[in-house]
Amino acid sequence: QDIVVVAHGQANDPFWSVVKNGAEQAAKDAGVNVDYRSPETFDMVAMSQLIDAAVNQEPAGLIVSIPDADALGPSIQRAVSAGIPVISINSGSDVSKGLGALLHVGQDEFDAGKSAGAKLAEMGGKTAICVNQEVGNVSLDLRCDGFAEGFGGSVTVLPTSNDPAEIEAKVAAALSSDTAIDTVMALGASTAGEPAVAAAKASGRDVNVASFDLSASFLQSIVDGDAAFAIDQQQFLQGYLSVNFMALHAKFGLMPGGNVPSGPNLITADKAAQVIELSAKGIR
Amino acid sequence: MNDTVQGAADERLKAEPLFAQLIKRPELGAVAGVILVVIFFSITADRSMFSLSGIINFMTPASQLGILAIGAALLMIGGEFDLSIGSMVAFSGLFFGVCAVTWHLPLVAAIPLTFIFAGAVGALSGNLVIRSGLPSFIVTLAFLFILRGLSLVGLKWATGGSTQLRGVREAVENDWLAPVFSGDAFPGLFAKLADMGLVATFNNGTPKVPGIPVEILWFVAIALIATYVLLRMPVGNWIFAAGGDRTAASNSGVPVNKVKVSLFMLTACCAALVAIITVMDAGSTDARRGFQKEFEAIIAAVVGGCLLTGGYGSAIGAFFGSIIFGMVVIGLTYTNFDQDWFQVFLGGMLLIAVMFNNAIRKRVTGER
Amino acid sequence: MNDTVQGAADERLKAEPLFAQLIKRPELGAVAGVILVVIFFSITADRSMFSLSGIINFMTPASQLGILAIGAALLMIGGEFDLSIGSMVAFSGLFFGVCAVTWHLPLVAAIPLTFIFAGAVGALSGNLVIRSGLPSFIVTLAFLFILRGLSLVGLKWATGGSTQLRGVREAVENDWLAPVFSGDAFPGLFAKLADMGLVATFNNGTPKVPGIPVEILWFVAIALIATYVLLRMPVGNWIFAAGGDRTAASNSGVPVNKVKVSLFMLTACCAALVAIITVMDAGSTDARRGFQKEFEAIIAAVVGGCLLTGGYGSAIGAFFGSIIFGMVVIGLTYTNFDQDWFQVFLGGMLLIAVMFNNAIRKRVTGER
Amino acid sequence: MTQDTKFHHGDATQNDSPIVEMKNIEKHFGNIIALAGVSFDVRPGECHCLLGDNGAGKSTFIKTMSGVHRPTKGEILFEGKPLNFATPRDAMEAGIATVFQDLAMIPLMSVTRNFFMGREPTTGRGLMKRFDVAKANEVTIEAMRQMGINLRGPDQAVGTLSGGERQTVAIARAVYFGAKVLILDEPTSALGVRQTSNVLATIDRVRKQGIGVVFISHNVRHALAVGDRFTVLNRGKTLGTAKRGEITPEELQDLMAGGQEMAALEGSLDGTI
Amino acid sequence: MTQDTKFHHGDATQNDSPIVEMKNIEKHFGNIIALAGVSFDVRPGECHCLLGDNGAGKSTFIKTMSGVHRPTKGEILFEGKPLNFATPRDAMEAGIATVFQDLAMIPLMSVTRNFFMGREPTTGRGLMKRFDVAKANEVTIEAMRQMGINLRGPDQAVGTLSGGERQTVAIARAVYFGAKVLILDEPTSALGVRQTSNVLATIDRVRKQGIGVVFISHNVRHALAVGDRFTVLNRGKTLGTAKRGEITPEELQDLMAGGQEMAALEGSLDGTI
Ligand SMILES: Nc1ncnc2c1ncn2[C@@H]1O[C@H](COP(=O)(O)OP(=O)(O)OP(=O)(O)O)[C@@H](O)[C@H]1O
Ligand SMILES: Nc1ncnc2c1ncn2[C@@H]1O[C@H](COP(=O)(O)OP(=O)(O)OP(=O)(O)O)[C@@H](O)[C@H]1O
Ligand SMILES: [Mg+2]
Ligand SMILES: [Mg+2]
Known about the structure:
The complex is a heteropentamer, with one copy of chain A, two copies of chain B and two copies of chain D. By secondary structure, chain A is of the alpha/beta class. Helix content of chain A is 49%, strand content 18%. Chain A contains ten helices and eleven strands. In chain A, the strands form two sheets. Chain A has a six-stranded mixed β-sheet, with helices on both faces. A five-stranded parallel β-sheet of chain A has the order 2-1-3-4-5, with helices on both faces. Chain A is elongated, with a radius of gyration of 19 Å. The mean pLDDT of chain A is 89. In chain B, the strands form two sheets. Chain B has a two-stranded antiparallel ribbon. Chain B has a two-stranded antiparallel sheet with strand order 2-3. Helices cover 69% and strands 3% of the residues of chain B. Chain B is globular. Chain D has nine helices and twelve strands. The chains are: A alpha/beta, B mainly alpha, D alpha/beta. Chains in contact: A-B, A-C, B-C, B-D, B-E, C-D, C-E, D-E. Chains D and E meet through helix 1, helix 5, helix 6, helix 7 and helix 9 of D and helix 1, helix 5, helix 6, helix 7 and helix 8 of E. The site of one magnesium ion has 4 residues of chain E, from helix 1. Chains D, E: Keywords: ATP-binding, Nucleotide-binding. Chains D, E: Pfam families: ABC_tran (PF00005). Chains D, E: GO terms for molecular function: ATP binding; ATP hydrolysis activity. Chains D, E: InterPro entries: AAA+_ATPase, ABC_carbohydrate_import_ATPase, ABC_transporter-like_ATP-bd, P-loop_NTPase.
């Protein structure tokens, strides 16, 4: 039984490596074979080609993320019309049904951003920067947009590369040139979150730092009180459940009746400690 | 060896087998690499990779890359680089999207406009390179950033804040020009072939391959034209000369600057063509389109035997180089290797393909 | 112009002002660009950019880039490229992390091991380039992919599934060698200066700048040593010769192959140094460290006046090139420009800085 | 060897007005002064030799004549009209062909492609207009054979030719395309005896067709064999112009050496080097 | 000009065993046969001229001698022992210095740096051991002056030197470093009369010091002025070796032309080109 996962995030992306770990765990548990595939960068054209390649191999099930329904739609529809069951994960909950997917596991990036924004506004934030380490990656842009909507106050996007030294310097620069900034939202814990914490600490100011996704060091900062919280999509579930559902579907024709929301789940100081170890192993 | 007029036999020449004569040409060296990669995948990959649909599947990205790579190869032979190709794909994609979606222009206006626009940007960077005397690397690098940034700004402006512009497919759906730049060619033929059982079908009876994607046709056509231009047109000679030694070429009367600027415009237009095709196919464009394509195009050209220093190479080489690259990238998904190993695998295959092709050529031609 | 012995005055020479003599040197051309960028930011940016803490803030990434850029510049002068620098940062970072965290080695063993390891990989790619006669672009490109892929695989192996290896800070905290490779130098001095009111302090009295980050010291030291080697050591002459024309150099008795392989090893060791410093500073390493650093290093070297074709350039140029690049990347954050324009701005500033420096040099030296 | 034929050395058609006239040319490279005011002209049907020590400025001078360098000061008249060639292509289109000292060849390209670089013969019309490779190959092989070089094939890369073979390609090319003025910068330096005599004979033939030839050489005997007038440069300045017959080989050689003493060698060389 | 000094042309020390002996050397480039079996030797204190038509294979031959090419077939003996130089550096360390026809210079580098490329003089010890720029500049300027070139300064880039200046740098360098054998591939091709006589005088001087000289030239008169033995190549094969005095200039010239007819020029050139 072959199940193919085609996602828009690379295997070396901290977030997606957890999805991949989840999928592999499920494959082991359910006794199926799973292949995780992704384009080299956030590239919708390449991703649609990968879906086509997967369809050619006529797997028992196809699991895709849908950050751009226009670009990926035809390929997904081709899979569906070829009789391959499709489950969507992570992004695309709104279009998943329309394209013929059986169900969606995951949480919309926009909604996750929105809830984080609301939480930070509640903590007293007025002026925020949103550290985006990959501008143009639509799913990251959605996180920022959602955050801006939930936060309500003034939000500036700070574009960076994913070099920690550069991110730290840029956050420090932003903090020192605009003293009104009281909130930093990072779009990835290990790439952007950790340097943002370091910069905030060095600035000597009282700044709330929050981040999407988890990393052990960032969680440690939450425990230590240097960071506010992390938003956990529990993306392990996106990989695990989708593969598991697909395996069950292939064996017994079973499929849950509705979408499964995997998050959001805010990890604050009280919960952080217990998550650190799991995060260091790539499960959370 | 069609350039040869052989006089009387010369005792200073050994007889040379036809095979050696062929593989000496930069055009054909890359074929050895293609063969190696095909052999590798026929052993390790799923059989469906070399089915008709599998071949079309890897030829589609190879073609999109190849159109860029041929432009890049010509420019490299002419002695310059263009690092802004990838950003140009995003930028002209945005321009085309805006023409089609925001301004509701028909394709017959939108497409020429996009080419003119891209050509103008190419002419600009080319002129900057020539006038300033700076290396094209640094000038086009600046354009890489500038065009990428403008794409982002433009997208936000066109969509009112999003980094994704949608609705192109709907806007061009019924345009008579659309089939030339998007979708599959010869659908009728393939449907018939499927009925006759010559093309595999899905369970529901639709052919697995609805036609040949237009980019493949464009790719082949451009490769042929570029080869003809390089080998059989005066301007081809000028390109080689300009890249081989610009002072010598200019001293011999080659209009080096014009040649170089035209090449920059050509590369930009290749990028625009890819942008038009992919935007129409995907129905949308975003700020990351074409990311790092400049890099891949240069890889394909170099794998195909172009020298980075200019003055040597071929369009056919870039053609096969793109196929090698496309095959390796997509091929892995037909094998059982873990995705974690993808990059190791990609690097290894590239290295082996190039080394193999190089070793064969040396062995055959007796260079050392 | 310290290479000159001036004989009797020659009527075939015009007098040349000292300024013209200086700006002719590739070492000093890039200074014009630095000045321009500084002027630009002193007008547009927040004042804090050129406060002590602001300067240290942009010098830290500039130094990390600069260490790589100087290695890349030497290699480029020697006529080769290394595209695997960025991946090498990730890979040797992983190796170092494993040494320190998994194997619990003290720094005095872990650091030399990391350098030896990086040097060996550099020697491997260098030998492949030399032996095969392939362009270094394509060989090191393969290494870019391979090393990046191996970093991912290695990280997952070392951590049991995560792409981030942490705990380095804890592992090396009390090692006597740690202050040489991480943290800030001269903390005592700065504390004293703060007490004397010479360095700004936070409200609680701690100095805003606790010291000079060690990478800055490394950066300056390496730039000085590399300049000395290039201009005052026989091997510097060999590097220029090997890059200028490898046949001519080899015919004149320069051991071209040895020089090139050593340069590959050197670049790899520069990458390893950056890896060690950043891993110790961050306390962790992940699979994306050093992403695209090869690109930035080449940019900095070219901005600093290195020729892509080899044989010309300087370490000091790369030094200033890195500072320009670092300043532009960080500087925009201090201004009020919309951050969406970041890349447009980056590209524009790079172009202007290089054109300015070029124009100044031409104007002053009367080239045309 | 045939001893019966002598060159015709009658008065060059001195009355014709010059094709190219250069007045007080100066050329500076940054702080280096390569030419400090040189005047020179070529008339149709004459061979004007430009002589001088190494580094005197001969190559720099003919490069300003053929559009490679723009003079820092001075005036160029082409057929009486003031003119500044912006590129070598302009000069070529005006009918000036040059053999540069560094030959201006692309090592990686074939002999034929180098021969016709910039001025490819075409065949066909409209869209089918293309580089006439067959004709180009034929012309190349034939032109080289006339100069005394039997090529192995026209598609050998120029970079793999011997020094003399390469120089011959450059000369044959210039002769083929030189319509009004032919400039030869040390054309015989790398040539064998047979090829040298061919080149000298070619200069003579070309001159008789009414083309003006500028011939740079360090060989007094070669210069005297074909030259009608002799201009000597020294350290960027003219030492003067002499007509054929007005000057002895020894005097000319002294001028070329810049008036400086030469190493003792005369015994075995019969007077001239 | 001084007419009283004549070269010493006594029997070269023919009894000494050769420094370098090349036996039946063949060299093929792909399908091109450049050398089809050539034998040659140099003895200490003699000047052995290698002559021949363009493309005869002279440069290819001396490149196998100086370690640039590896012979396809054949044997090389250095001081009696079979030897294969893997790189030019090996040959140099054994005491062979070469002026290549293409000069082997780096255009972007200064004169001094080119002069000492690969063999830089150092000063200081241990870590302070460094390139002795002052000394290098001095030596360069002086060596060039001896050859008759007054450089503007030692840090001018070689690419901006005139053709003859550049060639002089290469010759001066080889003379400075040639310990046992000095190979000169058409060293005087771009030189002025004064520089040429200097080079010929230098060859004579060096030979008297017991160094073996291999001298390639197309100029019969130059060859006869300094050569002790003359080997003529034609189309990759030896036509034979003659000793000084055994052959007339006209015979030698005929051999060099490969036995083929030359264009009619003799009248104005006194017999030899
Ligand atoms: N681009 C340049 N930059 C600086 N100096 C130059 C440049 N070109 C030539 N020169 C200098 O100008 C002088 C004249 O050079 P030119 O090549 O014209 O001499 P030439 O008379 O042709 O000598 P030769 O007989 O050796 O070829 C030389 O001393 C040379 O160093
Ligand atoms: N690398 C190469 N590849 C192919 N052919 C070559 C190569 N090098 C030399 N040849 C050929 O070998 C022959 C001998 O060349 P070589 O340079 O030795 O001649 P030469 O005697 O030095 O002539 P010249 O007097 O013109 O310098 C030439 O015909 C040349 O075309
Ligand atoms: Mg000259
Ligand atoms: Mg030769």
